[in-house]
Amino acid sequence: MGNPIRIVGIDPGLRSTGWGIVVAEGSRLTYVADGTLTSDAAAPLAERLLQLHGRLAAIIADWSPDEAAVEETFVNKDAKATLKLGHARGIALLVPASAGLPVAEYAPNMVKKTVVGVGHAQKDQIDAMVKILLPRCTPDSADSADALAIAICHAQHRGSQALARQLKAAGA
Description:
By secondary structure, the protein is of the alpha/beta class. The chain has one domain (5-170): 2-Layer Sandwich (Nucleotidyltransferase, domain 5), CATH 3.30.420.10. The chain is built from 5 helices and 5 strands; from the N terminus they run E-E-E-H-E-H-E-H-H-H. It has helices spanning 45-63, 79-98, 108-115, 123-133, 142-170; strands spanning 5-11, 16-25, 28-38, 67-71, 103-106. The chain has a 5-stranded mixed β-sheet with strand order 3-2-1-4-5. Helix 2 links the parallel strand 4 (67-71) and strand 5. Helix 1 (45-63) packs parallel to helix 2 and helix 3 packs across helix 5. The chain is globular. The two termini are 29 Å apart.
């Protein structure tokens, strides 16, 4: 069946960053934990990023995942909001990488297609499918449900991610 792999999924955001942890053993998924990290909206940007960094680092330290998966940024019409999301995403990539974890990235449509079956699924559809795939979970927010979906997506695609890394390292 394979060794169990603990995966943290991260849905980055400056206001709230969702996180979710699953264990993948072969094709079997087990829910571990989830939550939502927030930053002080009244604080300067640098302080908010530092808050997210510290809180996400504590999650990584407390739950000891083996691998991380982060959702890629989608570009919206508000360039300023997209840039702020990019800052939070940088923290979401940096924290697990600095803990020595391999970090995979997935486009939002890939996550939705993997979990729901369609690339343009709505938040409520993602939440419903996450609860079906991980029956013990009760996500505390849409962000933590999305983070669990990202972890599920990684569990399904991690083999192809590893193969891509090996091919890149071999210069293929």
